[in-house]
């Protein structure tokens, strides 16, 4: 399977164990290092949509006001999505317009990451409408993406795999992912400002 989309082996012992400078194959970087973090995002989305639809049909419509926290994380997600769209466009140009063609695994990896970041923007927006400030699934996705992207970045820095402009875009994407991972830890302890609250009777109200 992986041999059909990759330009090298998924796990090459020669470059991992039997060398003084161990590294990872580009196939590993473009498959498992991308698919595993994205899987956490796509496993969470059905649950989010179910709870959002149920919540919207009830009386609890806790919409959080726009504040520095939710604006900053949505902004970071949108910018990182734009970076990935640029990387995808460049990879398609390399394949269909230029003489140097990247591996199919690389194009698929960038496409999956782009769609996942678009989904992250949607999740952040729905979180605001649902009164959710942060979520463990999303934080785990961002944490795994940061760790595995860091390992990929270290490999790209020592191996001639990406062009200079692709490497720069990847560095920017990595930095934005790291920022998005840190932002949930900066959530105000006093809680979000609720725009709409459930219609409940005042405790001192007499019928």
Question: Can you characterise this structure?
Answer:
The protein is built from eight helices and no strands. It has a domain of 120 residues. The C terminus is likely disordered. The longest helix is centred in the middle third of the chain and has 29 residues. The chain has 207 residues and is mostly helical.
Keywords:
mainly alpha; 8 helices; 207 residues; elongated
Question: Topology, please?
Answer:
Elements: H1 2-5, H2 13-16, H3 26-30, H4 32-57, H5 68-96, H6 104-130, H7 136-158, H8 164-182
Helix pairs in contact: 4-6, 4-7, 5-6, 5-8, 7-8
DSSP strand (E) fraction? under 5%
Largest sheet: none
Total of helices: 8
**What is the typical, i.e. mean, pLDDT?**
80
List the secondary-structure elements in sequence, H or E: HHHHHHHH
**DSSP helix fraction:** 55-70%
Overall outline: elongated
Measure the end-to-end span: 70 Å
Strand count: 0
Q: Give the low-pLDDT segments.
A: 189-207
Q: Structural class of the secondary structure composition?
A: mainly alpha
Rg for CA atoms = 21 Å
Short description:
With 207 residues, the protein is an all-alpha fold. It has helices at residues 2-5, 13-16, 26-30, 32-57, 68-96, 104-130, 136-158, 164-182.
């Amino acid at each position: 399977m992986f041999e059909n989309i990759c330009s090298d082996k998924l796990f090459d012992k020669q470059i991992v164990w039997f060398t003084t400078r161990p590294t990872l194959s580009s196939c590993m970087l473009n498959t498992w290092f991308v698919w595993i973090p994205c899987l956490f995002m796509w496993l969470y989305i059905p649950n989010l949509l179910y709870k959002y639809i149920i919540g919207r049909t009830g009386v609890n419509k806790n919409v959080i006001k726009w504040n520095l926290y939710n604006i900053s994380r949505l902004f970071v997600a949108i910018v990182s999505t734009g970076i990935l769209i640029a990387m995808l466009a460049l990879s398609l140009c390399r394949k269909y317009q230029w003489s140097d063609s990247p591996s199919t695994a690389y194009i698929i990896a960038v496409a999956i990451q782009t769609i996942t970041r678009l989904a992250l923007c949607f999740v952040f927006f729905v979180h605001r409408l649902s009164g959710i400030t942060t979520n463990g699934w999303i934080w785990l996705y961002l944490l795994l993406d940061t760790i595995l992207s860091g390992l990929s970045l270290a490999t790209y820095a020592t191996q001639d795999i990406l062009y200079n402009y692709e490497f720069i875009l990847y560095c920017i994407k990595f930095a934005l992912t790291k920022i998005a991972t840190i932002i949930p830890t900066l959530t105000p302890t006093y809680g979000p400002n609720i725009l709409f609250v459930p219609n409940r009777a005042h405790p001192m109200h007499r019928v």
